[in-house]
C-alpha cells in the first residue's frame, strides 16, 4: 500500500508498506538516493509490517530541503508517527544505518529494535574512506577506466546512471553477477540528489568530530543487531567502536556478501533479522 506522509513543515514524503506483524521502518542509504529496499521488504513481509520511504529530496519524495541530519531524523519520526505507531523497529542500510542510529539515540522510547546494516561506524580517528577508495578501484577492475572517464566530465542523465551502475557493481562480492545486481538497483533510475549527498556527508563527518557519539551509544539501552557483509569494500573494522559502545548488541557477518548482504545471502539475512526480532520482542500483554 503506497501513500504519502506530510512532515510538519509540509514536505511530501513517498512511503509504502506491506506485510503483517509488528512495524519495521526501513531507511535507505545514499545520501541522495531513493528507496531500493523492496527486496528486503519482500524477504520480511511475512514477519513484519515493513514500511519504506524516500528521504526528503530523493526519489519519489518532494525535491526540497533543508538537507540535514536533524531534519532527516524529524522526517523519520513523521513516518513512524503516521505509519508505524508509538514504537517501531528500525532498519537502516549504509548512510541509512547512521540515520537509524541517530534516530534511536534521539528517541529511544520510540524504537523497539535497531538493525544496523553495512554502516560505516562512529570512529572519527580511524577513517574508512581511503580504504574504500582503494578497494573500489581494485574491484572495478576492467570498468575502472570508463568509471574515471565519466567522472571527469559533465554527464547526461544516461551517463549518470551508467557511472552509478559501475560504482555500485563494486558493492557486490561476485564479479559475475555484480553489474546485473547494480542494474537492478538503478531500475527505475530516479536520479541522485547531489546537493543532498554533499550536505549530509559533510555534516556526518563534522558530527563524528565534534559530538561524542560513543558516549551516547553507551546509554542506548535497546537491542541492536549489526549485520555486515565480509566482502564489503568499506572496511568492517570501522564499525568495531560502535559495537563495543553499545550495551545490548549482537553482530552477524553473512558469508559471500558485500555491501548489500540481502542480495547475495538472502536466506542468511532473513534468518538473522527474524531471529533477532523474535528473540527480542516483548511478550504480549497478559502473557
In short:
Helix content is 44%, strand content 16%.
Question: Tags for this entry?
Answer:
8-stranded mixed sheet; AB_hydrolase_1; alpha/beta; 287 residues; 12 helices; Rossmann fold; 44% helix; disordered C terminus
* Sequence stretches where pLDDT stays below 50 over 5 or more residues: 282-287
Mean pLDDT: 95
Tell me the major beta sheet.
Answer: 8 strands, mixed
Number of beta-strand segments: 8
Query: Strand order across the biggest sheet?
Result: 1-2-4-3-5-6-7-8
- Kindly provide the radius of gyration, computed on alpha-carbon positions and rounded to a whole number of angstroms: 18 Å
Count of alpha and pi helical runs: 12
CATH class: Alpha Beta
CATH hierarchy: architecture: 3-Layer(aba) Sandwich
Oligomer: single chain
- CATH superfamily membership: Alpha/Beta hydrolase fold, catalytic domain
Portion in helices: 40-55%
Provide structural commentary:
This protein is of the alpha/beta class and 287 residues long. It has one domain (2-128, 193-280): Rossmann fold. It has helices at residues 38-44, 69-84, 95-106, 129-140, 144-151, 157-169, 175-185, 194-210, 213-218, 240-245, 261-264, 266-280; strands at 2-6, 12-18, 23-27, 49-53, 88-93, 111-117, 224-228, 249-253. An eight-stranded mixed sheet has the order 1-2-4-3-5-6-7-8, sandwiched between helices. Strand 5, helix 3 (95-106) and strand 6 (111-117) form a beta-alpha-beta unit. Helix 2 crosses helix 3. Mean pLDDT is 95; it is low at 282-287. Residues 23-261 form the AB hydrolase-1 domain. It comes from Micromonospora chalcea. This is Alpha/beta hydrolase.
